[in-house]
Amino acid sequence: MTDADYLRALFPDRYCVAGVWLKHYCIGHVLLLEKINSPFVNSGTEPKLGDLRIALAICKRDYTSAVSWLQRSSSRWGMPIRFCTPQRFVKGVAQFADYVNKSFTHPVCWQGASGRKMGMPFFQSVKLTLLMLGKTETEALSCPLSLALWDYTGYWELRDRMQIVGSEDREAMKMAKMLAERRN
User: Fold this and answer.
1) Which domain covers residue 29, as residue numbers?
2) Number of domains, the chain
3) pLDDT in tens, 19-75
């Protein structure tokens, strides 16, 4: 039987944030938000209304359209979030954070003691893996993030570089945790 988390990655839900329907969150969206130093991907600063508007303007477009939008000199960084009360803003930020978090699901892997820290940026590694799987660069950058992470992990598991924690292992860990809690 196919893992339910993988099926959610393969068929991601649509999201509406502050009345704006968003495209599937993809690697390209992550990188574009990093490029503009968005607080939604770079922790440390609280998002402001303008940050939410820009993030929505990017993520309501597919990757290639978002790149074009950012590159146009006439890009307006505004969105039609009119009469945004503080409560609606807070709700919009929470909805966008949920959109990002749910798009970042991936399989759990065993942690190896001998693994070395990767030298290249993580999302570059994911993109390169998708390229090795036969996707074009645009297809890789447009791939829903969760699916990209599943494909990345699956590819490296097939190459014996990672090991995904299977459903039987997860059940055994759950039982061990429950037994440990009973003892305490």
Assistant:
1) 1-107+116-184
2) 1
3) 899 999 999 999 999 999 999 988 788 898 888 989 999 999 999 999 999 888 455
The structure's pTM equals 0.78
The DSSP code sequence of the chain is ---HHHHHHHSPPPEEETTEEEPPPBHHHHHHHHHTT-TTTSTTS---HHHHHHHHHHHTS-HHHHHHHHH-TT-------TT--HHHHHHHHHHHHHHHHHTT----BPPPTTPPPPSS-HHHHHHHHHHHTT--HHHHHHSBHHHHHHHHHHHHHHTTS--B--HHHHHHHHHHHHHHHHH-
CA–CA distance, 69 with 77 (Å, rounded to integer): 9
pLDDT digit string, tens, across residues 96-149? 999 998 888 777 766 554 555 668 898 998 999 999 999 999 999 999 999 999
